[in-house]
Give the backbone structure.
Amino acid sequence: MMDAIFDYCVRILVFLAGQTGLRYKEINIWIFVILWPFLTLGSLLLVIFQRRRIQILEAAFKEG
């Protein structure tokens, strides 16, 4: 099962490499070194922002 998933992911990366003109290793770097951490950090910041917003709204609701 894991081999099939891995092979499928490799095929996707090879396809993306062909479509973008980048090499397989370059696609890997863009996805797993640049894009993935950026999205993870963005998600974390969004969660922090939303929690603060909820706390502000809950405090306003309790006062009113």
